[in-house]
Design a protein that fits this description.
The chain is 6% helix and 37% strand. The chain is built from four helices and 34 strands. Strand 5 and strand 6 (166-171) form a beta hairpin. It is elongated, with a radius of gyration of 30 Å.
Length: 471
């Protein structure tokens, strides 16, 4: 990938889903990205998908779903792995200034920050994939390390152009292990003090599964947390709730009412396990994300109109939202990949669109609200009209006809042409857009008529007429 001007994000859709990941950033005027998929493998497990769905499942988006309309470190906003990683670093205390000069593609992060990049996974680090490394495309990929399960397994959160937000578990044996880990703000964990071997009378808990929060973090609702998994099962669990790191009263129940004073604050939680004869266990902090003032919902859907043909204009017509002051935003996509600069309600189809599926992502956004997102797709691939060229010549006792079919943005054209020479006729398949026939005939002038019969992308064309003088 070349920079400047590349961006990446995964788009969450309602009418269609584009599950491609490419990892690009903003470094100057935008130009067309070439996107490649970050391929899944048996050793990677998606734990959740989508901002709201992840939060509802207890996997925080750290507030990015409500804040992704801004650019961080000059990365493109929205679904974009680099913008999300930069956002997490800024939330961790770094300034909104890219800490290096030069190309910002994900593939370059570990190169420019080589002094703080190593092979040691650490919670809070940035997992980095270089160009074409372990399933990444030419622009690489970055993700935020949420947890280090072991030296051979990590859990990351990530966003991606043309896809959506995820939490994902990755094992070293999966073939998708990161190229390295960039330690912008995290610090290697100190060497732990050896834990004394428990005496036969000492009993301890082991946490076997993380707790889950079963509702989105929206004010004037109540969220409920599970205790997670434990071995053995505790006689009692208690919950401790925090807003921006400050304990919320003396609440110890799994239910928390989200009151207006919590809006904008980041919610986190710890779980306590207790039983007689066991050492009380307090879990690590689980960051759940910011408390939102609400969610934007579409009360009437947006619509897409226009003919998917070269030069035609597609138009997205906004629906309505339950938040009247929600701000609409548009992003046009080609085969699920965002088209740089195509952010208006209309889009004129160009040569690059021919043969592809064009769609538009319509979003209703409001500060401190989860956005409403709809994706509308044109009813068919974009077509381009055929241009048919006919040439004839003769040899002794033979008529020779050559037909060439071209179309803007779609070369070579496929399909068949119907060729008539006098009373002789035949359907001939194009090869590299060309059909040629040689027909034995008596001397004389013959009328020649050819007609392109069409394909899925290039419609049938009117007949072209000529003549041939057989010697």
């Amino acid at each position: 990938m070349r920079t400047p001007g590349r961006a990446a994000r995964w788009g969450s859709t309602t009418a269609a889903s584009a599950m491609l990941a490419s990892y690009l950033v903003l470094a100057g005027p935008a130009s067309a990205p070439m996107l490649e998929p970050f391929l899944p493998s048996a050793g990677t497990t998606y734990l959740c998908s989508g901002y709201a769905a992840c939060v509802a499942a207890g996997y925080s988006d750290a507030g990015y779903g409500a804040a992704n309309g801004a650019m961080y470190w000059r990365m493109y906003s929205g679904h974009n792995c680099t913008n999300y990683a930069a956002y997490r670093m800024i939330r961790a205390g770094m300034p909104n200034v890219r800490p290096w000069t030069g190309d910002g593609n994900a593939s370059e992060w570990g190169k420019f920050m080589a002094s703080i990049t190593d092979q040691t996974p650490n919670a809070g680090a940035i997992a980095w994939w270089g160009k074409y490394s372990n399933g990444a495309g030419s622009a690489g990929h970055v993700a935020y390390v949420e947890r280090v399960v072991s030296a051979d397994e990590i859990v990351v959160s990530e966003d991606s152009w043309g896809g959506t937000f995820h939490w994902r578990s990755i094992t070293r044996a999966s073939g998708r292990w990161p190229t390295g880990f960039i330690h912008f703000v995290d610090r290697p964990a100190p060497t732990p003090t050896p834990t004394p071997t428990p005496t036969p009378t000492e009993k301890v808990f082991a946490q076997t599964a993380n707790p889950v929060v079963a509702a989105p973090l929206v004010v004037n609702t109540t969220v409920t947390a599970t205790a997670g998994g434990w071995s053995p099962t505790p006689a009692e669990n208690r919950w401790r709730w925090f807003a921006d790191g400050v304990r919320i009263g003396d609440i110890v129940t799994p239910d928390l009412a989200l009151t207006p004073d919590l809006v904008g604050k980041t919610l986190s939680m710890r779980v306590v396990a207790k039983s007689d004869g066991y050492t009380t266990y307090v879990s690590p902090f689980y960051e759940l994300g910011p408390v939102l003032a609400g969610m934007v919902h579409a009360t009437a859907p947006a619509t897409l109109s226009g003919t998917p043909a070269l030069g035609q204009v597609l138009t997205a017509t906004l629906g309505t939202y339950d938040q009247p002051d929600a701000v609409p935003a548009y992003q046009w996509l080609r085969d699920g990949v965002a088209i740089p600069g195509a952010t208006a309600a209309t889009y004129q189809l160009a040569a690059d669109d021919v043969g592809t599926s064009v769609s538009v992502q319509v979003s209703g956004t409001k500060a401190q609200f989860a956005p409403a997102v709809e994706t509308l797709t044109a009813q068919a691939a974009v077509t381009s009209p055929a241009l048919v060229t006919l040439k004839t010549r003769s040899a002794p006792g033979r008529a020779i006809v050559r037909v060439r079919v071209t179309a803007v943005g779609k070369l070579p054209v496929t399909g068949k042409v119907l060729v008539r020479i006098g009373s002789w006729q035949r359907e001939v398949r194009l090869s590299d857009g060309i059909a040629k026939v040689t027909v034995p005939m008596a001397r004389g002038t013959r009328k020649v008529r050819v007609r392109y019969l069409g394909s899925a992308v290039v419609p049938a064309a009117p007949k072209v007429v000529g003549r041939v003088d057989v010697r």
